[in-house]
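Much of the work behind modern protein science is quiet bookkeeping, done one molecule at a time. Below is the pair of lines this work produces for a single protein:

***
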Amino acid sequence: MKQTTTPAYFSGEQRYIRIVGTHNTVNKIFHIVAFECMFTNKTFTLEKGLIVPMENVATIADCASVIEGVSRSRNALLNGDTKNYDWDSGYTCHQLGSGAIVVQLAQPYMIGSIRLLLWDCDDRSYSYYVEVSTNQQQWTMVADRTKVSCKSWQSVTFDRQPASFIRIVGTHNTANEVFHCVHFECPEQQSSQKEENGEESGPGDSSPASQQLDPHALQAPSASSLPSSPGSNSRSPNRQHQ
C-alpha cells in the first residue's frame, strides 16, 4: 500500500492543532495514518498564509509526486537528472489530445514560476500550456505556448498564486503525436539555470522530462502502455496515458 507523507509548515506559537478533512476522492471519510509535530528555526516567507518557496519543492524529498503521465522510470521527472536521457528513457510523456503530465506538490504553496526541460535529442519542437490548481477542480492557465515552437529548457513565470497541482498539456510535436518532458522544477532555480552552460530559457528552449508514476493514477505498465519513444511515429491510442 502506498503511503504519502505530507509536510505542512506554519509560523507562530501553537498549542493545539486541528486537522479537518474536507474531501476524499473515494468516499466520505478522511483518514490519517500517522501524525508528527516538529519545530524548526528556519524562516519562511508567507503570503496569504502560504509559504513562498525559494528552493525547488517539486522533488521526491519534498514529497512531490507525478500523478498523471507515462514514464519507464518512476521518479524521472522529479529526480533532478537533466543529463541522462535518450530515445528510450529519462522522460515522461502523454498522447497529444489525451491526458496530461500532472505534478502534485506536498501542500499548497504560493508559486510564481516553474522550469521544464523538453526532450531535445533532435531538432523537433513542441507546443504546450500550463495550468495550476489547489483542488484539481478549478484550473488557472499560467502559460499559453500553444502557438509557439518550444525547444529544450523552458522558463515559465507568472503572477504568484496558490498551487498544489501543476498540469502540463502538450498540444503539438513536429515529430509525432506525443509530448515528452525530461525535468520539472518549481519554483525555477536560477542557480540550476546558470549551470546549464549559461543557456537562455524561453519559448525557444524546451526539453521533455521523465515522470514519476502514481500507482493509483496509472495501471501497471504493459507492452502497449509503455511511453512512446520520441522517435516513434506511431499514433496508436494504445500509447495513451491510461
Residues 199-225, 234-242 have pLDDT under 50 and may be disordered. DSSP finds one helix and ten strands in the chain.
